[in-house]
Amino acid sequence: TPAPTPAPPRDRGGLLGRLTGRAAPETVVRRTLDDDMLERIEELLITSDMGVETAARVAANMAEGRFGRKFSTEELKAVMAGEIARIMEPVAKPMPLYAKRPQVVLVVGVNGSGKTTTIGKLASQFRAAGKSVVIAAGDTFRAAAVEQLQIWGDRAGVPVMTAPEGSDPASLAFDAMARAEAEGADLLMIDTAGRLQNRQDLMEELAKIVRVIRKKDPEAPHNTILVLDATTGQNALSQVEIFRKIADVTGLVMTKLDGTAKGGVLVALADRFGLPIHAIGVGEQIDDLSPFDPEDFAKALTG
Ligand code: GDP
């Protein structure tokens, strides 16, 4: 078989290229890292969706021990990437797998964030790792969502449990739990509704799902993954705040990082919440879910 063609490097429009201009290759221009330069760095970081607070922190970290010294653009890029990677390293953690059977994974997030797609991708990865998986289509009010999940289940080779449209998601979750137990499945992934328009309803619905599965396993759900869409930029921060009030979020997946989103919001998320980032979505296909790599991410972000 022919060797796979390597994917072209992603261009996120390198931040620092715009800051200092590209010097001709033979002349390396060095500029002093002073207050003026730091202010411009901060502004550029803000344009990457990092938010004011986190941008200020990254700029301050860059200045520490380096203020007043001269740097080329390439050197500054490396410094910036290093400081961003340092913030991201503690949160780069794949979803933990437990010996517990079934390990219950509740997946939450607003509609359109990529929940269904991410569940399909994760199920496929777990299957490839030799795990048996059951999916429950817990967004029983959206027929299209259930259909989509069935398609993803077929692709991943994983059974998808559904319930009639409009029926109680908690009772589906209970049945799915019973089936996963009976089959000795390693993982049960439960999709949930993402209607933030009626937060009270959603909160009660999620609480009821949790209550019902805890009748079978007091420690479930073992993971509650919040799926966020990178193209919503700073909005992701308020989504984390809202969902943390509704559910006990244990980790994040950020989708759509293959698009134009610069992803700086991930740095803000790490800085503010410190929640593990389990994976990132980099496309619409089943294999387009990557582990989160802080160094690659920081390099891609700084350009
Ligand atoms: P849900 O409503 O949260 O279940 O969202 P879906 O899983 O249906 O995804 C919404 C749309 O986003 C679909 O068109 C997906 O193909 C697309 N999508 C999901 N994840 C990614 C990703 O990582 N990259 C890209 N480019 N598109 C994605």
TrEMBL record:
Residues 15-88 form the Signal recognition particle SRP54 helical bundle domain. GO terms for molecular function: GTP binding; GTPase activity; signal recognition particle binding. Residues 102-303 form the SRP54-type proteins GTP-binding domain. The keyword Transferase does not apply. Its EC number is 3.6.5.4. The keyword Membrane applies. GTP binds at residues 109-116, 191-195, 255-258. It catalyses: GTP + H2O = GDP + phosphate + H(+). GO terms for biological process: SRP-dependent cotranslational protein targeting to membrane. It is an enzyme of class 3 (hydrolase). Keywords: Cell membrane, Cytoplasm, GTP-binding, Hydrolase, Membrane, Nucleotide-binding, Receptor. It is found in: Cell inner membrane; Cell membrane; Cytoplasm. Residues 101-248 form the AAA+ ATPase domain. It is a peripheral membrane protein. GO terms for cellular component: cytoplasm; plasma membrane. Involved in targeting and insertion of nascent membrane proteins into the cytoplasmic membrane. Acts as a receptor for the complex formed by the signal recognition particle (SRP) and the ribosome-nascent chain (RNC). Interaction with SRP-RNC leads to the transfer of the RNC complex to the Sec translocase for insertion into the membrane, the hydrolysis of GTP by both Ffh and FtsY, and the dissociation of the SRP-FtsY complex into the individual components. Belongs to the GTP-binding SRP family. FtsY subfamily. Part of the signal recognition particle protein translocation system, which is composed of SRP and FtsY. SRP is a ribonucleoprotein composed of Ffh and a 4.5S RNA molecule. This is Signal recognition particle receptor FtsY. It comes from Silicimonas algicola.
